[in-house]
């Protein structure tokens, strides 16, 4: 899918596109991935976002504090294995670490009875779009302005329409400093999930990964002197010296806290528990077919009705399909 489209519908209905001979139907996920490919071109074999990454083998020891709230096997008392992938957010795998401000940390827990549960975090606490439709409009506007197919005045008008929802995310991005290491960032999983206990009671939560070494950043000056892939090199060395670790912090929402809006933070005084500790053990080559789909979760955790969260399932699958097919 790479022909240009003039309309888009991220709402679930396939949209139409004509190549002059026949009408082609494409799904919202295909359309989104097409648009993402227009940002920096197609890089065969790579993810269509967060293209370059670094994988490690890890181990998660739950504290047991989440057990009263969820039946999720990895949040009880026994250690589970995990795969972690750190990444830069760019769609271009060749972009220097310094130039992609937000970083990602995706964790796949390998459950004792088989099965997996995934958590995907980034270094900003909120997303820039409230719905897939907004996401698509902002991305198409960006791409069309870049290629001269939309006048700047029209682009500004469109971005202004979304400024309210994007504001917090843009401010957070602006405040980001280059990380000293992938292991010294705080990662927010942004969306709301529900913990589900034995009686079926559901509680809204957000997940955060807090680095045990504390947040450490570099000045722009120092980061500019680093090699393009300094974060990967640094992790190789760090893992040889001492296993880095993160705490999994679970934040509980209260009555009135939004559960379907990834552009909104909850008040900072919400109750939290320390649900366990993830220790990174050694670098590994990326496992074949690895997909960090944030909707792939185990029993004891449920998805919220956040439209962005639910939209991610099909777009991640579409990206996997393209990159595994050699595209
Ligand atoms: C409309 C919303 C979004 C779309 C369309 C989207 C799309 C994508 C796609 C296509 C990939 C590559 C998937 C693959 O090939 O496996 C990806 C990766 C990723 N995205 Fe998103 N994304 C969205 C929202 C978010 C949000 C809200 C976060 C914040 C937590 C996020 C964080 C990440 C991370 C960390 C990765 C790399 C995962 C890995 O290491 O495998 N994305 N995204």
Automatic annotation (TrEMBL):
It comes from the Bacteria. InterPro entries: Catalase, Catalase_core, Catalase_sf, Catalase_SrpA-type_pred. SUPFAM superfamilies: Heme-dependent catalase-like. The keyword Disulfide bond does not apply. PROSITE patterns: CATALASE_3. Residues 8-327 form the Catalase core domain. Belongs to the catalase family. This is Catalase-related peroxidase.
């Amino acid at each position: 899918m790479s022909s240009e489209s003039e309309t888009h519908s991220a709402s679930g209905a396939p949209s139409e596109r004509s190549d002059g001979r026949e009408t082609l139907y494409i799904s919202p996920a295909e359309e989104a991935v097409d648009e993402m490919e227009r940002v920096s071109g197609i890089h065969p074999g790579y993810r269509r976002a967060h293209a370059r990454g670094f994988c490690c083998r890890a181990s998660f020891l739950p504290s047991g504090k989440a057990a009263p709230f969820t039946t999720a096997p990895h949040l009880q008392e026994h250690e589970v294995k995990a795969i972690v992938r750190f990444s830069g957010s760019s769609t271009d795998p060749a972009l220097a670490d310094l130039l992609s401000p937000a970083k990602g940390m995706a964790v796949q827990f390998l459950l004792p009875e088989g099965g997996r549960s995934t958590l995907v975090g980034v270094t900003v606490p909120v997303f820039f779009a409230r719905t897939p439709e907004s996401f698509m409009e902002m991305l198409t506007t960006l791409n069309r302005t870049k290629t001269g197919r939309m006048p700047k005045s029209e682009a500004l008008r469109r971005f202004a329409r979304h400024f309210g929802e994007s504001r917090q995310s843009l401010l957070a991005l602006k405040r980001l400093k280059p990380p000293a290491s992938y292991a010294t960032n705080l990662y927010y999983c942004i969306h709301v999930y529900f913990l589900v206990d034995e009686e079926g009671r559901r509680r809204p939560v957000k997940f955060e990964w807090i680095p045990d070494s504390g947040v450490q950043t570099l000045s722009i000056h120092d980061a500019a002197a680093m090699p393009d892939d300094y974060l990967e090199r640094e992790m190789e060395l760090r893992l040889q010296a001492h296993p880095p670790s993160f705490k999994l912090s679970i934040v509980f929402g209260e009555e009135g806290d939004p559960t379907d809006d990834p552009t909104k933070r909850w008040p900072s005084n919400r109750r939290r528990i320390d649900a366990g500790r993830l220790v990174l053990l050694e670098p590994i080559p990326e496992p074949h077919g690895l997909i960090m789909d944030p909707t792939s979760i185990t029993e004891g955790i449920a998805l919220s009705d956040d439209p962005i969260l639910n939209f991610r399932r099909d777009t991640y699958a579409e990206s996997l399909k393209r990159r595994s097919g050699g595209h």
